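4.2 Preliminary Data

To establish feasibility before requesting continued support, the project team ran the inverse folding procedure on a target of 248 residues. The structure was first converted into the token representation described in Section 3, and no sequence information of any kind was made available to the design step. The complete token record follows.
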């Protein structure tokens, strides 16, 4: 357990000490929130769907967590490049503990990032339908973070090309984000698009966040949570397996 804690703490310290990263990582969510939230707000309102800022804020929070988690996998490549990963793997601890420490650290950082974006959304005018529902929203933030931090670890374990990693991740992440319903309602979509959104794991995390924060569920709390727990377990198992096979 001490190895897991040390690696978890390392991820937190590395994030907290990088003020540039903290500030810069808020740029993209703010762009989506302000440019789309206020730019498309009148169109969304005329369609009788209420405030677009209210609708898009949970999607922006989920987006910030997703991007932070997936690209945390590149830290494995940096550690491989500079020799830290080799020193970690030869330590008298199991690779499972190393993987768990890194993944949980990345998930914690991403959850904290989501909370910062939530604060930015509150400043921009977003208001949850019930403050008592915030703990429920934090649960979905954590589930999204654990799910995609595990996926980032899995990809970081098999990809060795430092230049190719961001390209591959963008190829995976952007469709996952745009097809999750983060920017538009999932109701009344074409049949093909509906089927695709239903197999997107981020869809259930975004729906859980939106339902918790503004009370607009497409599925249900029980279904969203069950799917996220199942996918998090599957991705964690995949990440652990691939990390155990990592070659230096």
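Position-by-position output of the design step:
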């Amino acid at each position: 357990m001490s190895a897991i804690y040390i690696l978890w703490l390392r991820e937190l310290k590395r994030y907290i000490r990088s003020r540039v990263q903290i500030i810069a990582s808020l740029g993209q969510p703010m762009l989506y929130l302000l440019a789309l939230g206020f730019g498309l707000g009148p169109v969304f309102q005329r369609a009788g769907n209420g405030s677009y800022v209210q609708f898009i804020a949970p999607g922006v929070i989920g987006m910030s967590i997703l991007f932070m988690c997936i690209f945390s996998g590149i830290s494995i490549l940096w550690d491989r490049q500079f020799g830290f990963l080799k020193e970690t793997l030869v330590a008298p601890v199991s690779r499972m503990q190393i993987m768990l420490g890194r993944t949980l650290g990345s998930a914690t950082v991403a959850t904290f990032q989501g909370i910062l974006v939530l604060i930015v959304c509150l400043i921009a005018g977003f208001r949850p339908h019930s403050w008592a529902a915030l703990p429920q929203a934090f649960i979905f933030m954590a589930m999204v973070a654990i799910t995609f931090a595990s996926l980032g670890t899995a990809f970081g374990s098999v990809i060795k090309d430092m230049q190719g990693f961001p390209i591959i991740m963008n190829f995976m992440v952007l469709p996952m984000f745009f097809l999750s319903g983060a920017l538009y309602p999932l109701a009344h979509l074409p049949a093909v698009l509906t089927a695709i959104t239903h197999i997107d794991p981020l869809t259930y995390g975004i729906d859980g966040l939106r339902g918790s924060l503004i009370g607009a569920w497409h599925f249900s709390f029980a279904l969203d949570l069950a799917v996220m727990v199942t996918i998090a377990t599957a991705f964690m198992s995949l990440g652990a397996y691939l990390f155990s096979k990592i070659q230096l």
